[in-house]
Design goal:
Layout (H helix, E strand, L loop, with lengths): L6 H21 L5 H14 L20 H6 L8 E4 L7 H5 L17 E5 L2 E11 L2 E9 L2 H8 L1
Amino acid sequence: MAEEQNPDAEGMDEGLADEWAAAMSEAGETGGQDDVDDEWAAAMSEQEAKPVQLESLSAPAVPSGGVGSDLDLIMDIPVTLSMELGNTEIAIRNLMQLTQGSVVELDRFAGEPLDVLVNGTLIAHGEVVVVNDKYGIRLTDVVSPSERIRRLK
């Protein structure tokens, strides 16, 4: 079925085209950046810009308590203290074959001092003790702060 063209539709299309042509001619041939820049310049000139006064920055005030009061701020932060008996590397195949009663050999010798770690950082060595039916550790050697920093690098 062939569509018949509506003569009124053709007249509307021509009228719309004439409106667009008139609008484009009002915008000018450049229709571009110069007009936009002029509009922005006019808008900016209407604004009343005032300078802002900023306070001068200074070093934070030091509490009268000195260093001791600074340490008080961190004294209640919880950390994880752990003791490492030893470790080893095994293949996943061997790991999957472990059952109850299996023995895993560690890299430490019997009687060798254990590592004491705080949040994963070595801070001391010690030996296992039993206190009131619970395990504990007696520190035998504390790692110096300079040594801890050297090990981090």
